[in-house]
Please model this.
Amino acid sequence: MTAQSPHADSDAPPQELALTVGCAFEVDAGQAVEAVMQVAPRPQPGVRMHRETWETPVEHYGYIDLYGNRCERLTFPPGHSRIAYEAELLLASPADAIEPGTPETPVGALPDEVLSFVMPSRFCLPDELGHEAWQRFGHLTPGWGRVQAIVDVVHDHLEFVPRSSNPWTTAADAYRAGQGVCRDYAHLAITFCRALNIPARYVFGYLPEIGVPPTGELVDFAAWFEVYLDGRWHTFDARNNTPRIGRVVVGRGRDAVDVALMTSFGPLTLTGFHVFAGEPSARAEPAAVAPR
Model:
């Protein structure tokens, strides 16, 4: 990426990082509504769960979806409900890995399970933006550098504007509008990668402000993406375009439709929402769950 991590040192062993992450939702329902939530960290190597708690007014249970993400099923009762989740984690290697020079994997050598991440999906449209992708990036040497060039272009092309997109905004829509939120940055970069036959998948999770200047923005879930290069998945972030410390993956999928943080099978009104992610010493309860 464009800058080295403040914790990066090739001669030093990775430093473990303790984090507290979580969120709270407040919703109103006119009737009982079934829902699925994805807010718990995804099981993966290098992330150790010390403790997690759910605060809900109803019974709930978890399952693992076809992408390996943790999902929670519950039924919101009529009226007002508050759902809260919190987890204490230990990350073995918290800094983004920067590996310039990593080559692409030829399509013919891609594993079968990776091929779906080259195909179009609901929000990522390599067939629609393919000409643009090849015009901009087709002449570049395949590999890490070409993916980073895509990240640089997307980061500069889109202006981050809260609430500038909606649940139906595609990568092509964001490209034409020239603005979006973090999921639009990820969708557009994924689309350009797939148009060049580079497998790319959508990721969302918790992203604390560690080792970077504070933005002053309210903490929210973050979206980034991963690219399959030289037989492994690698992290890229078109929204921030700088190495970060403490990413906690909640969900991975083809695009945002596979990892919605809440899917309701009936009408719900979101009246409050709060997200937190940081080192335990910095943990502070909000005065109230702020309406969005």
